[in-house]
Amino acid sequence: MTNIRYSQAPWRKSSYSSNAEESTCVEAAPLPRTVAVRDSKLARSPIHEYGTASWAAFLGALKSQA
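Predicted structure:
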């Protein structure tokens, strides 16, 4: 069962997931104290939540490697 909090979340697909040939598609949605992350290809995939500071550190690490 989908949590209403997730169903109303403003999901955003990763810009790296736009290639139709790619098999990885990730969506993230900011929530009040966390960021929810899911696989956009699988409707019933697990949703993982990360603290906003952890998510910001993760994105910062990715950007520094680009």
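Summary: Residues 4-14+24-65 form one domain.
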